[in-house]
Amino acid sequence: METTFAHAATLWLEPGSDFRAPGGAVTVALCGSWSHGDRPCVWPHHTVVEQDGAQVMVRTVFRAGPEDEAEVRRLIEHALRDGRFVGPGGWESRWVTRASGPVDPGDDQALRTH
Predict the structure, then answer these.
(1) 105 φ, ψ (degrees, to nearest 5)
(2) 55-64 vs 45-52, strand pairing mode
(3) pLDDT tens sequence across 53-101
(4) Domains with residue ranges and CATH for the chain
């Protein structure tokens, strides 16, 4: 049975970086690519990225079985702690992860549409 979980991080973005890049890194980590093609997402998720100057807040809400929660969090952590992502146009963005970890998913409506 799937459960809804959430993971949040605070990052410092390097100048010239795209604030959306950490969200792209999470998507690629969980899905393997920007698009799923013909296959459904293994772990349905929704990532919101908000920027306040050089600080970026990333929140990913995902559905997974309790047995997969640790693996999904590991993939998210790795994507964020890597601190680098090259977008589809070849533009490289860099950041430093200041804090990252589990948070309460609350009553997130985002996954109800996926």
Answers:
(1) -70, -15
(2) antiparallel
(3) 999 999 999 999 999 999 999 999 999 999 999 988 888 999 999 999 9
(4) 3-101 (3.30.70)
> Distance between CA atoms of 24 and 40, rounded to whole angstroms?
17
Report residue 52 as tokens.
Answer: 């306040």
This prediction has a pTM of 0.89
57: amino acid identity, one letter = M
- Distance set, CA 61 to CA 19, 39, 93, 109 (Å): 18, 20, 23, 10
Distance of CA 2 to the CA centre of its chain: 19
| 3-state SS string for 79-97 | HHHHCEEECCCCCEEEEEE
Decide: 62 and 2 in contact? Cβ < 8 Å: no
